[in-house]
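Review session, final week

We close the course with one last complete record, chosen because it touches almost every idea we covered. It is DHA2 family efflux MFS transporter permease subunit, a protein from Vibrio ziniensis with 507 residues. Go through it on your own first, then we will talk.
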Amino acid sequence: MTSHVETNADDNQGSKRLFITLSVMLATIIQVLDTTIANVALPHMRGTMGATQDQISWVLTSYIVASAIAMPLTGFVAARIGRKRLFLYSVLGFTFASVLCGAAQSLEQIILFRILQGIFGASLVPLSQSVLLDTYPTEQHGSAMAMWGMGVMVGPILGPSLGGWLTEYYNWRWVFYINVPFGIMAWMGIAAYVKETAIDTTRRFDMFGFALLGLSIGSLQMFLDRGESLNWFSSLEVIIEASLAVLAFYMFAVHMFTHKAPFLEPMMFKDRNYVVGLLFGFMIGIILLATMALLPPFLQNYMGYPVLDVGLLLTPRGFGTMTGMMIVGRVARKIDLRYLVATGLVLMIISLWQMTKFSVDITRWEIIWTGIVQGLGLGLVFVPLSTLSFSTLAPRYRNEATALYSLVRNIGSSIGISVVTTYLSHRVQINHAVYAEHINNFNPALQDAVQKGAYDLSTTAGLVSLNNVVTNQAAIFGYLQDFRLMMYVCIFTLPLLILLRRPGASK
């Protein structure tokens, strides 16, 4: 009889965990999806709003900056009003802001509503991670992080495909309306199954510390987002933003380690696994979205694939990621997690090395295969890394630590995108100059092409046509050099594994 009661209790507990997992995953997916899903719809928004290219980019910038500034508030607000209550307010606010974004009639309106969306959505990812870590026992944290990681990793990968499909067959407004049913389901699940945490009214808000951190993060995001279009340090605006970011962060760091009640608890940084996990997360953030920022324009502009085909070619990368996470969920308790991270990094290095050999003659299968291998590697890295990062950290720091962990990964993504974009532009110019040196009357290949009538160098049209070919080849090689840069980032990340401890190796 006792055994039967215990079995029912276990079944009920398992069912409750399942509903909690599904609910927080939905909240995670709608937030991370909105970081990339709107990118595809920007040209259509631009036509509707009558905005310039520079103006419409604020639809992305406003969301990223607002989310980055608000994310560090997660730990404090959760402690003051309760984690469940904050989660419910955030899901409700994010869903309502999504409706407002879809209904916006002017550029000013959609930028304002995107700021609201970023503020409410900032806490969804760290709260979902914190809830799952508290819901599952320590020995099941690997499986819990595998399920949570599917939402975090697959969202940005599937975002461009889903955004392109919605924009093509319906309207750009559905890029935002798609959040509504999932937001409602997430809210209902969280309200029904997630437990409330204890409220700490003794903790004081460090306004000065938050202002310094917010100024640093906001300035950094503006610097990264505006730098490329303003030619980086040739612009006074970019110089001011970079200076503010560095100065404000330095002042925040000094304030945090000297103030009696700082905005972020400095004791978190005594945990070696957590600090190394932050560094790792930063590097993975660079690789995750930087590669995704390069592939769509490469396939569209130089391989000649239409938008929908590009989405289909990149989708298997998401399946590779999910496969990697499912493998981790099965073997996390049996294998040293550091071996899984090492295996994942090696797979990513192999896939990026294969991408450095791309040419206009590659087949669809080669594109799909490299994407699957890279996705599998990301899946094997992301989940064990999340588990290792929090394996030795005291539970009382989880709300604050998960917010900072997500913030650092997002900053890594922003820096990665800016770096690969700038590096691509720089390499294209250098490659064009190098190739142009070989365009002369002594080049037998050019002479042969002229004799066959491919180019008429006596006319302006012929010279323009030849220059277009040189520019095209310079750009293709620039993309390959960018893939090689990402490969080096992976290689330089490998030694960080030495610094990670196994769970249970230290208190």
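Two points worth writing down before the exam:
DSSP finds 20 helices and no strands in the chain.
The radius of gyration is 24 Å.
Good luck, everyone.
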